[in-house]
Design a protein that fits this description.
Number of domains: 2
Helix content: 55-70%
Radius of gyration: 23 Å
Largest sheet: none
Structural class: mainly alpha
Strand content: under 5%
Length: 399
């Protein structure tokens, strides 16, 4: 290979990490960095059966990260927009981006730093390659958190999620719970005041200037839905002209990457076009949520039940969870029929939890985690049903 950097690594650096080298025990760390920057120099073994394809784990994970970029970029802009809106100040596009970048990017950096550190440590201890799975989790975790979350909490939650949610099960591909949602659930129950309320969703929301701004509010639309008679208002206290469209476009307070359904749909399109995301799970989850919303609308006895079914689909983290977390190929159902059942129940349970218990407005988090546990059982019964059907058909033919 003519690349001078690759040549230098191969001739001068790599021998130190190979068997017999003075840094032999750290080979997994070196291998992870080398394969991240360059195409691996080894080929598929010539013995045994192997699938030869143009896509591998690294390309799959990078594609998912790219699908989240629209939500990240909008989240950065919206962080600045909500901050200046709460202050009652007029801001330019770049002022919003600048402020948002200063608040959001450190959370992303800490997430990746803490998670990859744990991945490298486990790879060195267990003497295996560093898996690429955290490339996705490292981006998902910041996007589903409020912007005012302290950085040390991000690090603690990320380490907890990687160790307890993945490594104890054997690493990437063995975990039964979505890693990013495990981190969010840990923060939600360990530090609830930093995951709910009116101040944590607005950048600088804990600052006295924002807290004292006349009429300012950082309440999400889900929180305001419990007091729907007072109307939906933005960070500056002004009533939304079109609640559904504001929520669809994302001009609302909320977690960093979860406010803009439009940006999330762009990511969904990327996942579907590349064949990485499951349209069966996405579609069935939306249908499940919509059906549950219609049922509640028909028997409305509290403000949450009065929220139109279509608005439930654009409030909170529903869309983000359905597109990027419910479709996790490791923790989701694997059978075709199972994916329909799995997705539909996620949508159904997400809205049910949201309505029945306003203390857990982000019902999609608990719904996905619960269905992660149920996914193997769903697949078991789907396969068992198929086997029994074939047995009956075979017996009928034989008779």
């Amino acid at each position: 290979m003519s690349n001078p950097i690759y040549k230098f690594l191969e001739e001068k650096v790599k021998p130190n990490f190979e068997e017999g080298g003075k840094l032999e025990k750290f080979y997994p760390a070196y291998d992870a960095l080398e394969t991240f920057m360059f195409v691996p120099g080894h080929t598929t073994p010539k013995v045994g059966s192997h699938i030869r394809d143009g896509i591998d784990m690294k390309r799959t994970m990078i594609m998912v990260v790219l699908a989240m970029i629209p939500a990240l970029l909008f989240g950065i802009w919206n962080t600045g927009y909500q901050h200046f809106l709460a202050l009652g100040e007029t801001s330019t596009f770049w002022e919003n981006v600048g402020y948002g970048a200063l608040k959001v990017l450190p959370i992303v950096v800490v997430s990746y730093a803490a998670g990859l550190a744990v991945e490298f440590i486990f790879a060195i201890i267990n003497k295996h390659q560093v898996n690429e799975g955290f490339l996705v989790s490292g981006m998902l975790i910041p996007l589903c958190l409020p912007v005012e979350i302290p950085l040390w909490m991000v690090a603690v939650a990320t380490i907890f999620a990687v160790v307890i949610g993945k490594e104890v099960f054997g690493g990437t591909g063995m975990n039964i719970l979505n890693v990013a949602l495990t981190a969010r659930a840990f923060l939600f129950f360990a530090y609830p005041t930093w995951m709910s309320g009116d101040k944590v969703w607005i950048g600088g929301g804990t600052d006295e200037a924002v807290a004292m701004a006349d009429g300012s509010t950082g309440a999400t639309l889900l929180a305001q839905a419990t007091e729907k008679s007072s109307g939906f208002v933005n960070a500056a206290g002004a009533e939304y002209g079109n609640t559904f469209m504001d929520a669809f476009l994302g001009f609302i307070p909320g977690s960093i990457g979860e406010t803009s359904v439009l940006a999330i749909l762009i990511g969904a399109a990327i996942l579907l076009i590349t064949g990485i995301g499951s349209w069966k799970i996405m579609l069935s989850a939306v249908l499940g949520g919509y059906v549950m919303g219609l049922i509640f609308n028909a028997f409305a006895v509290n403000p949450f039940m009065e929220v139109p079914a279509h608005e439930h689909l654009v409030f909170g983290g529903f869309a983000f969870g359905v597109v990027f977390m419910a479709t996790d190929p490791v923790t989701a159902s694997q059978t075709g029929t199972g994916k329909y059942i799995y997705g539909f129940l996620i949508g159904l349970l997400a809205i049910m939890i949201r309505v029945f218990n306003p203390a857990y407005p982000e019902g999609v988090m608990l719904a996905i985690l619960f269905m992660n546990v149920m996914a193997p059982l769903i697949d078991h019964y789907v396969i068992r049903t198929n086997v029994n059907r074939r047995k009956k058909r075979t017996a009928a033919v034989a008779a």
